[in-house]
Amino acid sequence: MRGQATSPQTLATSAALAKALKKKGVISGNAFGFIGNRMLFDYAREAMYLIEEGALPKQVDAAIRDFGFPMGPFQMFDLSGLDVFYKIGLEAPKSPYRESKIITKLYEQGRYGQKTGCGIYDYVAGSREPAVNLGVEQLIEAESKELGITRRHISDDEIVKRCMYALINQGAELLGSGIALRPGDVDIVWIYGYGFPWFHGGPMWYADTLGVKNVYDAILEYQKTVGPHWQPAPLLESVAKSGGTFAPRPKLEAAAV
Question: Which of 41, 131, 132, 250 has the smallest number of CB atoms closer than 10 Å to its CB?
Answer without folding.
Answer: 250
